[in-house]
Description:
The complex is a heterotrimer.
Chain A: E1 3-13, E2 16-27, E3 31-35, H1 42-49, E4 57-62, E5 65-66, H2 71-76, E6 78-81, H3 93-102, H4 111-121, H5 137-150, E7 155-159, H6 167-182, E8 186-190, E9 200-204
Helix pairs in contact in A: 3-4, 3-5, 4-5
Chain B: H1 2-17, H2 24-40, H3 44-65, H4 68-76, H5 79-85, H6 90-119, H7 125-151, H8 158-186, H9 191-220
Chain C: H1 2-39, H2 53-80, H3 83-115, H4 123-142, H5 148-180, H6 195-242
Amino acid sequence: MDRFTGSDLLCIRGERMVFTGLDFEVAAGGALILVGPNGSGKSSLLRLMARLLKPAAGAMAWNGEDVSDDPDAHNARLHYVGHMDAVKPVLSVAENVRFWAGLRPNGAADPQAATARALETFGISHLADIPGRFLSAGQRRRVNLARIIASPAPLWLLDEPTTALDKEAIASLEGAITRHQRGGGMVVLATHAAIEAHAPSVLDLGDFEMAEAV
Amino acid sequence: MERFIRLVGRDLRLAQRHGFDSLLVVVFFVIAVVLFPFGVGPEPNILARIAAGIIWVAALLASMLSLERLLQADFDDGSLELLVLSPVTLEIIVLAKVIAHWLTTGLPLIVAAPLLAVLLNMNAEGFGVLVLALFLGTPTLSLIGAVGAGLILGSRRGGVLLSLLVLPLYIPVLIFGVGAVDAAIGGFAFKAQIMILGGLFLGTLALCPWATAAAIRQALE
Amino acid sequence: MHRFANPKRFMDLSRALLPWTAGISVVLIAAGLYLALFVSPTDYQQGQSVRMMYVHVPSAWMSLFCYTFMAVAAAVALIWKHPLADLAAKSAAPIGTCFTFLALVTGSLWGKPMWGAWWVWDARLTSVLILFFLYLGYMALINAFDDPTRGFRAASILVLVGFINVPIIKFSVEWWHTLHQPASVIKMGGPAIHPSMLAPLLLMAVGYTTYFLWVLMVRMRTEILAGKIRAARLRQVRAPVKG
């Protein structure tokens, strides 16, 4: 069973210490929900998990193996949804999704069908041929979320995924997350909105702030 | 390899969907060269003497102008983040983007260069060497420029800063590029200059994707 | 944390060293200038203007020395993430720029009586001019970001790329120069330098180096103190979140 762990993580952004001494653990089928006030480092922790940021101290491991040993392998097993949707205005919705799915080695046998399925999950099949520039913010977010469904990866790192989504889309996302967990996937989620996941554990970033500097 | 082609293909398709905005670079190139006869006068001898230099300097500037978009658009909409997180090694991604950039800007410059050489009354012996030198030189410019494009990501003043970073590093290419053409026109051997241009290309090919990848990684932190 | 541990030691050490470097550089440069201006012989060809050499040549040396120093500091900063190395590279840049500028100006002043023109595209002068642009690019880049640490890392990469390029640029400029001007008008120094000329030259060079160290430490201390002020501001911003 897959396990993703981090121990004694220290994060410095700019010249500011965001959190220190942070441990986490996610197992296959698990969900970890990050909570905490603005500026407590939820996004930083997700970027740390994706290795977009390097921890100033501490280490993260996948099944006991340090993730920095093989960065490409770590990239292959994660999907990251950040604040920006990475939807190209001149590419159609289907082209956008298919490009990202095609970059991954464990892509589906039939990328065409996988893309169609992913679009359907978020109710945007009818937009498949529409160029990205015509989409609303919520529709762009749905495209971005469809991207992570179009190619399988065990670890989902979602930073405020519900931004700009309506109720119906949030329900689709919750469904997708639960299915992902059932299939042995894991989810790490930073959110202010209430979002349903199966058997979530909660990590409060507020607990790991630096003790007031002297 | 298949994914590499996919990356190049994506950038080419993006360029094509943008209506080949990048071809504006060629228009700039032509206009910049055409300005010189107005500046130095129309005497054919003078123009022929400085033709190689004019064409190379204009090519340098044109290639630099197009660099800002090389990474900035992907940086702005979050695509660069996802590219870094894709399982393809970032150095390879950089190389793919540079190739796409060269195909859409460098190659058109090479096509336009002989026409401009005719306008400037350049000696016919230099034509072949000019094209050959540009073939070796313009990819070098794209590679060096990619480093600059990576370094300015997220900075307050992109374009002007980029020119300050990149142009001094272009000087060797300029020197040997013009040197090769002038030698050919003068009837001397130009093999050495072409070899050095090739060496510069191979050197930047080894170093620049790596430096650009480092620049991108730090830009996303 | 490690960010503050090392600067503390550096602050103590530099405070002790400051007066020494300041004193030594003043004495050496004064002695060097005296020897250069009053004791050393005039050149049979160049006359008095040869004395320009004692300012020009060490400046040109320093311009390369500073850039090398920055490249080493940048490498240390990138590899070991040593916070002082970033500050050292950043603080050295303006000093190096000034030396480079000094080398250009004195070169030009020296060139007027020698070549009859304020500027000649001499291979050495041209290389120094390009080096000057590299310095300007570095300083523009390091100051172009709102987050100072971003500027540090980007500029470190730039200075390393530039450092690899310096010999290539030097080589190409020399090649270019021999192509266009086969006969060099002037050879600096000449093959055998007389001891009465060498002494002030070396004094000036060592004096410049200690001057560099002195100003470098002053600048680094300023940067560290400025960093402390920024940290204090950040704590203020964070205070309400703590509740």
